[in-house]
Design a protein that fits this description.
With 273 residues, this protein is an alpha/beta fold. Helix content is 34%, strand content 20%.
Length: 273
């Protein structure tokens, strides 16, 4: 694991890192940025290799020993020790822990999703905000969902802010970026009930049987589920709203419905759809 030291914020090596904030550069290179110890550990646990690791010892927590750093390195990792000024330039989050890496995540396809007999999956369509996608990933991880299908997304799944908002769970959940029609075929082939969330639905989310093969579908932040998913829904559900607004944040909605599915599955029963 070769080591080098960077003290100047004008070092050419840093320009390569900064370019990865651009989605076009991430797509062209197949690389992205991961910042934070938890996120890097989850990436490594998922078998993702760290190409370059930038560490700032002045920001590292006292509890992070040399063995802790070696835990997240791979044999090919090039380690750069950087000054606090340099780290401030490449860091993109408010929570600075002194660890940032350039990684090559694995891009999954629908064929990589191997589902059990009664899978629980989530489908999101047209999401624009990395924070929402990251929060939904955390809920998927929390309930043990088998996969997340990102359809017609406006943000890529390995956006550094998605990784940060998901606390690295983007690496522990199988996430596939695909199109609506391909996602629908996949769900039908696996005989999954398609449950679309919509403020206009007539049924409340806990009135539907979530114990069988289930896909929870959520639309964009501004428009909700498109006509495509509304037409192909097996059931539509809403969350009761008693105040002046008519809907919740999409990530909050995902968490409520996914955890209701988990509750029913843990109890081994559910109301009939």
């Amino acid at each position: 694991m070769p080591h080098a030291r960077i003290t100047s914020p004008r070092n050419p090596q840093l320009k390569k890192v900064l370019k990865l904030r651009d989605p076009k550069e991430r797509e062209a290179s197949g690389l992205t940025i991961v910042e934070g110890l938890r996120e890097l550990r989850r990436a490594r646990q998922a078998g993702v290799d760290l190409k370059e690791l930038f560490l700032c010892r002045d920001l590292l927590e006292n509890s992070l020993s040399e063995s802790g750093i070696r835990e997240i390195e791979s044999k090919e990792t090039v380690v750069f020790e950087v000054s606090e000024e340099v780290f401030a330039k490449i860091s993109f989050g408010e929570r600075r822990e002194g660890l940032l890496a350039v990684v090559r995540p694995r891009i999954l396809g629908l064929e990589d999703l191997k589902l059990p007999q009664k899978p629980l999956c989530c489908v999101v369509e047209g999401l624009e905000k990395p924070g929402n996608l990251g929060a939904i990933l955390r809920s998927c991880d929390g309930v043990g969902a088998e996969g997340l299908l990102v359809c017609d997304g406006k943000t890529d799944i390995y956006n550094p802010n998605v990784i940060r908002a998901s606390l690295g769970s983007v690496f522990s959940i199988k996430v596939v970026q695909t199109a609506n029609d391909l996602a629908l075929k996949f769900l039908r082939d696996h005989k999954m009930k398609i449950c679309v969330t919509s403020p206009q639905a007539s049924r409340i989310y806990y009135q539907v049987d979530c114990t069988g093969p289930l896909a929870v579908v959520l639309g964009s932040e501004h428009q909700g589920a498109s006509g495509f998913w509304m037409r192909h829904a097996d059931t539509k559900v809403k969350i009761p709203m008693r105040g002046s607004v008519d809907s919740l944040n999409v990530a909050v909605t995902a968490g409520i419905v996914l955890y209701e599915a988990l509750r029913q599955r843990m109890q081994g029963r559910g109301q009939r759809a």
